[in-house]
Amino acid sequence: MKKNLFSIVLILFFAIMTACSNSDANNEDTNKAADPESNEVERTDLILATTTSTQDSGLLDELIPIFEEENPFNVKTVAVGTGQALEMGVKGEADTLLTHAPASEQELVDNGDVENYQQVMYNDFVVAGPKADPAEVKGLSTNEAFSKIFESQSVFVSRGDDSGTHKKELQLWEGADLTPSENENYLETGQGMGNSLQVAAEKEGYILTDRATYLAQKDTLGEFEILVEGDESLLNIYHVMEVNAEKNDMINTEGAKAFVEFMVAEDTKKIISEFGVEEYGEPLFFLFD
Amino acid sequence: MDLLIEGLKKAIELILAGDPIIAEITFRTLKVSMTAILVSMIVGIPAGMVLGLIQFPGRRIILTFINIGMGLPPVVAGLWITMLLWRSGPLGDYSLLYTETAIVLAQILVSLPIITALTATAFQQISEKMILQVKGLGATRLQLVWILMKESRLAILAAIIAGFGRVIAEVGAAMMVGGNISGETRILTTSIVMEVSKGNFDIALALSFILMTLAFLITFCLTYLQQRRRTQ
Q1: Contact B86 A28 (CB under 8 A)
Q2: How far apart are CA A17 and CA A39, in angstroms?
Q3: Architecture per CATH, A42-122+236-280
Q4: What are residue A35's phi and psi, to 5 degrees?
Q5: Nearest CA in chain B to A12
Q6: Which CATH code for domain B2-227?
Q7: Residue B131 exposure: Cα atoms within 13 Å on the Cβ side
Q8: Does A61 touch chain B if contact means CB atoms closer than 8 Å?
Q9: pTM of the complete model beyond 0.90
Q10: What's the pLDDT tens digit per position in B182-230?
Q11: d(CA A141, nearest CA chain B) in Å
């Protein structure tokens, strides 16, 4: 009886959805790339699990349309924390990954969860904080800065969401031999970079952020600035990879391969290296060369 | 304060400019919410009628579960639907995760209990005597159902309004099962979350005004429908 009811529900909305999507193909021309019916080529879905920073900075909005134009795939970009993105790779829920946590990624490579692991680009993390700088960390090395923030029990806002940035932050605390949770003013937001920056600005606390998101949000943060930068330990490296096709029969291997190739192609590199120059006066991502 | 004024200005600008992307997101929001509420009505109203009118074993337990379902947090619904739709999940073969259909499913899951439970309550309130009387006058079953529905139309519309409010406001599940994919599953609520995280408060504010206008218009129409019949 219950099962019947469930199938009725399913059938009903399938019927409705089909009716809806058919009518959409005609009147939704703003949405060409996403709508398989309005294109001549047969498009297959390609799920890209990536980090919030690539979406929030606007880089993917620029790259994905170019990729879709050249290839017969419809990219579904799911922007989540690196932790979740990698987990989606492990479970075979995504076809390709673009993430920035090399140590955790290496585990996936070693376990055979992903293949064709390629370096794409880098930018850097910075420690940002209130202009007043209560812990006096401006210009110090990352290690010293983290120690000072800890000693002065200053407010420090952590992502706390297992993202690439969070992983990096934990590495830095470990490198300075400190347990951040012993600082009473250590806050974990569990949210994305943008939201966490807002919290840090509001609480006048320090935060580890990627430069791209910081630059994109600078105007809304008020009396907030970059205090520590340029350390080698602050490098933020992005890799692209294919999810192992054996994980699941539904993995779009061809699409994943094409996407990895696209991300490391010369033309793409040029776009990446110029991205952000116009708006922020400096590039947001850099290439290895 | 400046930000608020700037945001308001931007909001008005964006709405007046008729940005195609915003129009598309708004259209999608409407489509998804309407589909969800329609399915919830088609299933929920008859189910509520049965639960409200007919005594059968296990009825109370079902009612209890449906009442609990009214408080089902959307993120929980989202999580369950995600696990069902995963490629490795039971419905994985249909590739429904990160589609509008997935959002519709999650929204049905949160609105169906509301519509069913409120309809059931409405039908439970109809007095036995009235049913007897209608039957006594020689009404067929279908006629009886029709008369009872007319009798509880106020409550049924209230149920639809409550369900609709839940669906249009929902963000957690839509984010999880839809993925907020540009051009495919981005709806007003998920765009607001994204624009806030990007620091674009002005755009977020503009979207919030559009969402509220939409909610207002639809609720207004439903309320009008509800009250107009009353005065007749």
Answers
A1: no
A2: 20
A3: 3-Layer(aba) Sandwich (3.40)
A4: -105, 105
A5: B39
A6: 1.10.3720.10
A7: 14
A8: yes
A9: no
A10: 888 999 999 999 888 887 888 888 899 899 999 999 999 999 988 875 5
A11: 28
